[in-house]
Write a sequence for this structure.
């Protein structure tokens, strides 16, 4: 797993309340995404905590739209039409197209994985990813994967812009409840997060070392496409610590920053 692993906390939350109507259809669709090899009706009904007849009706609606299908074993999978729409939408996003050359350069320079992520609520969502060409071990992150903002390099960087002072940080924490402690190194108190974001605002970059997952560190920088005040997202180099220590990434910060800034300016001009 990695900084960009696909979190399931939000999916689990939907199961704690009764699902009706469109909520049930969306829950079924979300659960199907967790089973690329397919899932049977009985198992699917159990996982979304709904009666089999109602889940079957939801599946019928999804199949009519091409968003669900049955494989040769009769198990349900995501439909080709949904996958086509998702990839078409993703590929057409200008931010996705603009950052790929930057990610490719960073991945090649460090032999590690580079990501582009945006902030959605209290999570970061990974919109683009480039793996290094070489290396037997690669991160298992995926485009569309989510992680808590407070435990990731990209997330903390984007929070430093969203939350301009300690009062804003305290309010953000209080409205969302207890911060998840992903590892023993995750910062989960208001005071720790305030101190961290203050440093990020001062130095203009963010880093984390085993705060989201053991053995992984990252260094993140903002990217500005639409505004010079608020970043459109953040780019990170996420590395296996045994292969590329965080200190090595920090030492290379001037070169990383130069790559990001130069390519963004070229894309804009």
């Amino acid at each position: 797993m990695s900084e960009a692993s696909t979190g399931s906390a939000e999916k689990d939350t939907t199961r704690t309340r009764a699902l009706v109507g469109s909520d049930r259809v969306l829950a079924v669709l979300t659960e199907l995404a967790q089973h690329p090899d397919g899932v049977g009706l009985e198992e699917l009904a159990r996982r979304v905590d709904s009666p089999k007849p109602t889940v079957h009706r939801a599946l019928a609606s999804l199949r009519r739209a091409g968003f669900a299908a049955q494989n040769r074993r009769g198990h349900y999978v995501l439909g080709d039409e949904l996958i086509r729409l998702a990839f078409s939408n993703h590929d057409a996003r200008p931010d996705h197209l603009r950052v790929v050359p930057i990610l490719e350069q960073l991945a090649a320079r460090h032999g590690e994985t580079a990501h582009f992520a945006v902030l959605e609520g209290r999570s970061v969502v990974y919109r683009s990813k480039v793996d290094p060409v070489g290396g037997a071990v690669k991160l298992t992150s995926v485009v569309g994967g989510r992680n808590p903002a407070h435990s990731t390099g990209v997330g903390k960087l984007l929070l430093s812009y969203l939350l301009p002072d300690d009062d804003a940080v305290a309010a953000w924490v209080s409205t969302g409840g207890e911060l998840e402690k992903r590892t023993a190194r995750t910062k989960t108190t208001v005071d720790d997060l305030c101190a961290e974001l203050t440093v990020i605002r001062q130095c203009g970059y963010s880093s984390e070392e085993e705060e989201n997952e053991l053995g992984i560190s990252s260094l993140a920088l903002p990217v500005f496409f639409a505004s010079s005040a608020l970043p459109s997202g953040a780019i990170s180099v996420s590395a296996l610590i045994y292969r590329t220590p965080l200190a090595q990434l920090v030492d290379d910060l001037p070169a990383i920053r130069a790559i990001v800034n130069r390519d963004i300016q070229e894309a804009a001009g």
Observations:
- Residues 6-17 have pLDDT under 50 and may be disordered.
- The beta strands are 68-70, 76-78, 113-120, 123-130, 146-148, 206-209, 216-223, 233-240.
